[in-house]
Amino acid sequence: MRTISGEENALNWLDFWNGNHSIYVCEKHRQRHHERIGADIVQRLPPETGIVIDYGCGEALSAPQVASRCHRLILSDGAPSVRDRLSEWHQDAANIDVMSPEEVLRMDKGSVDCIIINSVLQYLAPEDTRNLLQDLSPLLAPNGRIIVGDIIPPDHTVLADAGALLHFAWQEQFMTEAMIGLMRTFLSDYRKIRATYGLTCYSADDITAIGTRLGLKTQRTALNIGHDQGRMTFELQRVAA
User: Which of 61-65, 138-142, 179-183, 232-236 is the least confident region?
Assistant: First the structure.
């Protein structure tokens, strides 16, 4: 497990996501990225799933797609500006709610069927990751799952990220924009914050150890959520007694 600093690091990343930023090379990248994530999440949900939480959801452009597979979808993000946009976009949706992380933790224990935490843990210090999963796990119903996606393994490099983006761009036909976007990212606040504070990396054993300590059955899935298959997704399940 490669470590990063704790509270200061989290605050700097939260400031980044709460402000104006662009991690997408073009609008097509943004749309295809969210479509891919939505499709990957949906295929992991049984039909008629009860309550699903997308924790650290970001823009969640695929929320209607995910909401169509569950009775209630809760979108939660730590950035107030993101929550404001989500509330506006989904104000007429009957089964989509927006909550702060604090509101999520006040939900009834044993009431949630699935918690999605995708592309989040790399921005947290390991201790904060352990605390977060410890706080969220009591919300799980019997056989409920926490799905943690886009986990960066210790040997995964920035060049590997760039290569995965270019492969995705080739598949979705925005290669020129991707090349230009990589140069723009190199000069951006994202690159500067990543260089200064880094991203947390976890091995499969790290995630399994966390799940075991929480009494959750943990396994790596065959495919990662999203386009970067050099990263990892795990399911942590509360097994019914």
Answer: 179-183
141: tokens are 């119903």
Strand partners, 145: 114, 237
Whether 116 contacts 147, CB under 8 Å:
yes
Q: In what order do the strands lie in the sheet with 232-237?
A: 96-99, 70-76, 49-55, 112-118, 140-151, 232-237, 217-220
Alpha-helical (H) ranges within 80-218 are: 80-89, 101-105, 126-136, 158-172, 175-186, 189-197, 204-213
**Domains, the chain, with CATH or none:** 7-237 (3.40.50.150)
Helix 189-197 vs helix 175-186: crossing angle, to nearest 10: 60
One-letter amino acid at 195 equals A
pTM of the model: 0.81
pLDDT tens readout for residues 32-86: 888 999 999 999 998 779 999 999 999 999 999 999 999 999 999 998 999 999 9
Query: Three-state DSSP class for 223?
Result: coil
∠ CA 150-2-155, rounded to 5°:
65
Judge whether 233 and 43 are in contact, CB under 8 Å: no
Question: CB within 8 A of 122, min separation 6: which ones?
Answer: 150, 151, 152, 199, 200, 201
Residue 68 identity (one-letter amino acid): S
